[in-house]
Amino acid sequence: MSSMTVAILMPGDMGHGVGRALNGHGVRVISSLAGRSAHTCGLAEAAGIEDAGSLEAIADTADLILSILPPASALAQAEQVSAAMQRTGKFPVYADCNAVSPQTVQAVGQVIEAAGATFVDAGIIGLAPGKPGGTRFYVSGRDVSAMTALDGMGFSVIAIGDEPGRASALKMAYAGLTKGTWTLHTAVLLAASQLGVLPELILEFETSQQGALEAMRNRVPKLPADAGRWIGEMEEIAATFDAAGVTPDFHNGAAEVFRVLSRTPFAEETRETMDTSRTLEQSLAVYRESLKDAQQ
Questions:
Q1: Residues 183 and 106 in one domain
Q2: Domain check: are 158 and 176 in the same one?
Q3: What is the reported pLDDT for 295?
Q4: pLDDT per residue over 247-290, tens digit each?
Q5: Are 124 and 41 members of one domain?
Q6: Domain count along the chain
Q7: pTM of this prediction?
Q8: 157 and 175: one domain?
Q9: What are the distances in angstroms from CA 130 to CA 60, 122, 133, 246?
Q10: Which of 7, 138, 150, 169 could form an S-S bond across to 62 if both were Cys, CB 3.0 to 4.6 Å?
């Protein structure tokens, strides 16, 4: 595997963690950092990810491309890479690892396969490699061998069928619970705060809902750093549920909660710069101001 080259587009929190893990197992990892932020470039450097320059260089050099970026950019990224493949005449395997609906991933797959490349649908569950809990790539598609070859290189790769869309469907259902629960917690606390009963509700939770309250204290103050990029993920989950005949309204509401959080000053933080000493109550006081601004 030491001769394999994997491109990661783009090396954010998850992408640079995957790149670091692959580097540690002798895989050459590259990216295209043109126009990327100083933060992203710093993450890439820390993970040992080489800047190949253009997408044409990526297509010409990589054996496998992992698309790991905000869901709203997934299709446009595929179109740009497809064009680069056609210009170079090189067609590496393309894995869409984004939090998108089965409908979106199938559109991405059509773009990639039209260029002549092999397409893999991949859904990532868990934190970035090296963080607690492990990282799992669920993959589906007619030929997922390029992805399963990475199994054990800092993360697990689990094949779940030959139909693109299955991996994304699993990711959507999973994130519908996790991020959906975090936004429900936030909405409940905001409502109680607006109604003037937050202290009493917290006291009741301390008696009857200790597990839920612990989860609220651990997670709700940290949500703004990721809120902006999770809006699109909630919209993709809503579309997934709607196509399955299940109400999309839960996750359209979750998207709205993330919009409120994305307008707070805390949204300027990153996972590296986040103030982890901030309490639940301190966070809610700021979230309320953002909520009021949205209502005006």
A1: no
A2: no
A3: 72
A4: 999 999 999 999 999 999 999 998 889 999 999 999 999 999 99
A5: yes
A6: 2
A7: 0.94
A8: no
A9: 30, 19, 9, 35
A10: 7
In this structure, the answer to whether residues 62 and 41 fall within a common structural domain is yes
Phi/psi of residue 154, nearest 5 degrees: 95, -5
Whole-angstrom distance, CA of residue 221 vs CA of residue 85: 43
Which of 115, 144, 162 lies at the terminal end of a domain, its last residue? 162
Q: What is the pLDDT of residues 108-132, one digit of tens each?
A: 999 999 999 999 999 999 999 999 9
Q: Tokens representing 48? A: 């040992």
CA 140 to each of CA 59, 111, 134: distance values in angstroms, whole numbers, following the listed order = 22, 17, 20
Q: Residue 116, Cβ neighbours under 10 Å: how many?
A: 12
Domain hosting residue 264, numbered range: 169-295
> For residue 17, what pLDDT is reported?
96
What is the structure's pLDDT at 272?
85
Cα 124–chain centre separation: 8
Measured distance CA(161)–CA(164) in Å, rounded = 8
